[in-house]
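thought: fold this chain, then report.
action: predict
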Amino acid sequence: MSPFDQGVVAAETGMSKDDNPYQPGTSAHSDWNAGYESVVEADEATRLDGE
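observation:
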């Protein structure tokens, strides 16, 4: 599973963004954060659409 996909799963399962297992400054760390944020942003957009 790619770091991006791991970040997606982390967000979907309620983990904290601070749980990123990769060394800061690496592409894997950035990819994990991008996956995590993609879920957070999608959830926010869905919530706003429902208001």
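thought: worth noting. The longest helix spans residues 27-49.
final: tokens above.
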